[in-house]
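## tool: complex_structure
## caller: assistant
## args:
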Amino acid sequence: MTGPGAGAAAAVRAPFTGRARREMLFCVLGLPLSLPLPVVSFAVTIWLAQVAGPPWTAAGNPSWLALLAAAAVVVLTAVLMVATGLTRALGAATRQAAGKLLGEQVAAPPPPRTRLGDGPGWRAMAYLMLKFPAGLAQWYVVGVFWVAGIVNLTYPFWWLSFRNHSPGVRLSPVPVITPFDWSGAGGHFQVTTFPGTFAAFGAGAAMLLAAPWVTRGVVAADRWLIRGLLGPGRTAQRLHDLEQTRALAVDDAAARLRRLERDLHDGAQIRLATLAMNLGMARKKLGDQGGVPDLAAARELVGAAHQNAKDALVELRELARGIHPPVLDNGLADALASLAATSAIPAELAVSVPVRPTPAIETIAYFCAAELLANAAKHSEANTIKIFITERSGLLALQITDDGLGGADPARGSGLSGLAQRVAVVDGRLDIASPPGGPTRIIVELPLRAGHR
Amino acid sequence: MRIVIAEDAALFRAGLVRLLEDEGHQVCAEVGDGEALLAAVASQRPDVVVADIRMPPTFTDEGLRAALELRLTHPGTAVLVLSQYIETRYAAQLLHGSPAGVGYLLKDRVADVAEFTDAVSRVAAGGTALDREVVSQLLAASRHAGDLDPLTPRERDVLALMAEGRSNAGVAAALVLTLGTVEKHVASIFGKLGLPASETDNRRVLAVLRYLGS
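## result:
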């Protein structure tokens, strides 16, 4: 169901959706959390101005000295709030509310190490200070768009029961609150007659229709503040990411060594053991000296041993190439060309990499391409594959497109998620676009040198 | 002899079957994992089992665990375990209790057909066949290494071959000595190490291994 009809229906439904309700609730609940600091500073200033007397009060207004003292109290309050962990607690409450009501999942910052030098605590303080104006804006939106909007809708219903005065009696007009005119009795939008109430009704309906979008706007600003100030912080987040990718890299290296041992054990080692056994048997058939007891069997066993030796060579070569393809030393272009040439599905290759990446990056790019080609051959049923590799502003972009069935999903196969992990170790990215029915386009982005972001 | 073979690599298993059949033995079952080995032994009642240690499904020590179970459930069946690596801990587990009818060899040893078939026969006859890698690791790790100093180099060779499970005749053949010379070396070794002289080969292997392992 698409088109203007559906759009209009969605617009009418928007004020009644759960999302609108939750966002409005968030707006209502948010402001009180930011109040401690403004309330303290306001109260102190008023007290100094009105109650304390000279030298704090100068003709009913706070003196400069009083303002300085109030500023000191505000700073002290802020310090106390950070040191006692109050800002962190309020930040945590906000994060929780944002997670529950807005679906904005922000990770908690790491625990504090010192009381006063607590970066996340001070960032939470900054959030609370910014939250005060943001929260006022949110209350304004709730009060004017939602509450006043609903009130405006009611005008036609009560007008006749309360304003049925006898002719000649003149009553003062009833003000209508709108976003453009909310000063109440002194405003310009006022209703004096029953038909006029329908104008108020229309204004209320328009305000309610606009309400979810305006709410979304003020909430979006708050989300931005929450993400920036209540999360773990860029350094902590980076540290967390690095710890995670390091763990993955270590696991990956261990798994690769295990696989290598397994391949050797089950492959070349077994072939060489069988070769030795066949030669041992052949030697016995040939006898120690003089005549040959069983020439035919000896010939056959030597033949088998010969075959074992050749098979072992093939396996060792494959294994060695799997560890590091020698052609990669000539550069990515040559290596990818030989990869494309041996691809099961015809592959087209275009390389434009003027700056040569470091060997580690070349190796990762090569094995990504090899794995993606193998994946395509296994699952895509494609007729052609296109491989593009380009360098743009310090990033190496490997793009592999096939015209196959699509539906590649890192959640299902471990191959793609493994690739994503390996790429993440060097701060690269794996981008998969593979709708069911195809085509599949996978982009691997890598820095030209590992460790340079 | 009736033999059951447990080995998951088909190529190597086929070679083993051929080698043992060429020697006139009867391979009554060939299997590829530990469970199947236990079943085959229960139904075939072989004289000897030749088993790979690393087999499906976990590719760790299935063969060893099956061998240990067979030692308990079928004490009359000799077990020769093969592996591409030597682990002294595995050897200790296999030899725990008695070294009678047990063998533990590197797969490489199959290349020396005569030596391998000799090991199979020895194990089947209730003897021991320990890989020289195991013995040299035992010798190197033995806390009695210092006590071995008085032994002559030739006596050390004889001690190692005894630990592998060879009889005097076997030692004599391996070192190209006469039986009489070997007997003299053996008596001298037992005297120097303070071990009681033993009648059977089995008891002798046990004494030597206990000495090295204690």
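## assistant note: The two ends of chain B are 35 Å apart (CA to CA). Chain B has two domains: 2-130, 136-213. Handing back to user.
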